[in-house]
Amino acid sequence: MNKYAKFAALIGVIIGTLVWLATANVGETQTYYKTIAELKAMGEEGGQKRLRVAGDVVKGSIERRGGEVAFTLAGEGQQLRVIYTGSEPLPDTFRDEAQALAEGKLGPDGVFRAGKIQAKCASKYAPKQGESGQPQYYGGPKTSSLPPASKSAGM
After folding, report:
1. Of 132, 103, 99, nearest to 116 (Cα)?
2. In a domain, 130, yes or no
3. H or E stretch including 113?
């Protein structure tokens, strides 16, 4: 074999390996987004796929037990019990009545087993409303610090 044929074979093996790595286990890493109602309608199929479910954390439902955190998500008039056993700490914004996104699988007992939790609290980042109803920035109404322009300036 000449050296060009060996080089072409090596390039073919490298490209084949890269394609295999890019496509292998794609089905296992896919995560589908479902509402609580859609998840409950899936039945046993919900335990076979990785899913993301969003909802509001029910006030007073957060229970910390050893290495797991149990809570209830609510949305569209439905509730879902979630048990988080992930290795990462929960976000600082995860608290009662926060919007949360749980990623995991539905167990045969109807409890959602999550390995990842994301949370957001929209009110934390919204601007405060002043007495006039206008948004306040940095503790007070947004105003210009420049003096008013003089009519005789520049003439």
Report:
1. 103
2. no
3. strand 112-120
Sign of the C-alpha dihedral, residues 78, 43, 82, 27?
Answer: negative
Quick: pLDDT tens for 64-114: 988 899 999 998 889 999 999 988 888 888 889 899 999 998 888 889 999
The verdict on residue 102 lying in a domain is yes
Question: Tokens at residue 85, please?
Answer: 């056993």
Cα–Cα distance measured from residue 118 to residue 59, given in angstroms and rounded to the nearest whole number: 17
pTM over 0.85: no
**The pLDDT of residue 2:** 84
pLDDT tens digits, 25-44:
665 556 678 888 888 888 77
CA atoms within 13 A on the CB side of 49: 16
Tell me the two tokens of residue 48: 């076979």
Parallel/antiparallel/unpaired status of strands 112-120 and 78-84 = parallel
Residues 6+ apart with CB under 8 A from 123: none
In a domain, 139, yes or no: no
Query: What total of structural domains would you count in the chain?
Result: 1
Overall residue count recorded for the chain in this entry:
155
